Amino acid sequence: MRAYQTVPVGRLALYLGRRIGEDPKLQWLGVRGEISGLREQPNGNVYFDLKDKDALVNCVAWSEAAAGFPPLRNGDEIVAVGSVGTFPRRSTYQLNVMVVEAAGSVGRLHAQYEERKRKLEAEGLFASARKRPLPRYPFRVGLISSRSANGAGDFLTQAQALAPQVTVVLFETPVQGEAAAPEIVRAIERASRAELDLIVLARGGGSFEDLFVFSDERVVRALAAARHPTVAAIGHEADAPLVDYVADARAATPSTAAQTVLPRRAELLRTIAGQRAQAARAIRRTVTRLEAELARIGTRTPLASTEKFLGLRRQRLDVAASDLVRSRERGLRRRADRLGALVRRLDARSPHARLATQRGRLAVAGERLRGMMVRGLERSATRLRIASASLRAADPTALLARGYALVRADGRLVRDAAELLPGTAITAELARGTLLARVESVEADG
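RESULT FIELD:
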């Protein structure tokens, strides 16, 4: 006869109650069925059974929760949301109900949810074997969400605070309602075509109906077909949306996703410093070991006095040590270069760097403007000198200064001597002053 343990009935009942209470699948569970045996106590507590054609479960709702229920009647079909517990005195299990919803639309959605879940699971879309590992150090992350949604804001805030070296690209889409499903699919497809390391599908909390778009078959299949590893970060309290099952990883909230999948800058710096110190220690240990080996060769070998024999091995030792040092140095340089790139990317995002860049651009623009003004003034001065010279050349007073005179008769300018008769009074305007004269004789050309 096999050995057995004897326990009191009460201890067994407590053990079973504790095991049921620790099962996460039995916490905050929605159960759909028809009310029967409804009993409302004077203190406000409510007892009833939920049944369907296959089974019946006892339900209890304490007065605090029952006060918010819709009117209950035997025969009504409802969805009772709560946690499964036990009643040790009778050794029965029961549903401790916190929320009651009319089965109507919610019931239909739950039925659709369960049907889709069974279908997609049978196709293998939820299988762990198809899950891809997330990149350890993602540097470009695609965020699929609504810019106005709390979930997107939470993710971006955490990303900037913890991992400013990571570039987050927002692929904006509505995240609620039946019309949102094709928009989410298109956003996933756009993110798949982009050069990214990771895709995060995010939204804050909401009711089962609000989040039902993330159980839409089109959305689930699009996320399964995404080119990059995916994270579902849909805040929920009850039934998990189906994208949680198909994504490569899931997070309880968008903030949690940012905290868990993005590499923290401080940890990166510590990791690089630790690897650098580890490499330096490894180099020192190797050099010490090789020096010790060289010393043993020099003291123990019968050919220790043979310069050629010992020199050859010393040369090989030097070459090996140099190769090792160079290899370690190359590795350190690669890590240092990568750290430098991270620091530069971080510094480039600082307000001081942006202000310095804007100041530099402003200085260059100012120099260009001053150059343009100087060149414009020089061109204007040149044109002014040319115009002044032209005006001076055409100035009659300049001709008079060279000895010419302007002759007038009766106030008219005289251009031909044949126009005048002897005895005509004329005036001759000189550079300085005017002469009064009379024509004595006229000699015309030709």
